[in-house]
Design a protein that fits this description.
Elements lengths: L1 H14 L26 E7 L6 E8 L4 E8 L5 H10 L3 E5 L9 H9 L6 E4 L6 H11 L5 H8 L3 H13 L1 H8 L4
Parallel strand pairs: 1-4, 4-5
Antiparallel strand pairs: 1-2, 2-3
Helix pairs in contact: 4-6
């Protein structure tokens, strides 16, 4: 009887086809507050360290909502993590220090030129806008008072991200004044 049972189980196993597949992901129904909407102006400032293993600082500033996201990424020489972050947040303008474009284009600038598949101009601005002290002061002035200390701890040691915030804010100072009523 046990051999008949085993034979029946084997024959059922031969004919039963069970398909195991990954569940379908739901279509995106909401747009993040920072990226993905065509009517928002998102400025991204990018700075990189010099060295074998580049550290890349990014600051995304949404001029429509006055929201900011700071990132500092330990990337590789193909800048795949930086490109991924840019593709997720899709800025409308990308700022780089002028040292990244002249006299010779940096590797990061070349990678951005060839791999960005959305329409965002790459703009080089003077290096003096990339100032860590100004970025820290901006955080102290514009963040909610109860969040300032936590933000300062979070950005502590992230020199490039803080410098990028300064550049994004300074380069768009006129637009910032109009949006938030600041007389800085």
């Amino acid at each position: 009887m046990s051999t008949d049972y085993a034979r029946d189980m084997r024959s059922q196993a031969e004919f039963s086809t069970t398909s195991i597949s990954r569940p379908k992901t739901r279509a995106r129904t909401t747009i993040s507050t920072l990226g993905g909407s065509g009517d928002q102006q998102i400025v991204c400032a990018i700075a990189e360290s010099r060295g074998i293993s580049p550290t890349v600082g990014l600051a995304f500033v949404n001029l429509s909502t006055t929201e900011a996201v700071l990132c500092q990424i330990a990337d590789n020489q193909t800048y795949v993590r930086t490109l991924h972050k840019l593709h997720v947040l899709e800025p409308t303008d990308i700022l780089l220090p002028n040292s990244a474009t002249s006299p010779v284009k940096s590797k990061l600038f070349q990678v951005l030129e060839t791999n960005l598949d959305f329409d965002a101009p790459l703009t080089s601005i003077t290096r003096r806008y990339w100032d860590e002290t100004a970025g820290s002061q901006y955080i102290e002035r514009m963040a909610f008072k109860e969040d300032v200390e936590a933000i300062k701890v979070s950005v502590g040691g992230n020199y490039f991200a803080t410098c990028c915030l300064s550049a994004a804010r300074t380069a768009n100072q006129k637009q910032w004044r109009q949006l938030i009523g600041c007389s800085a």
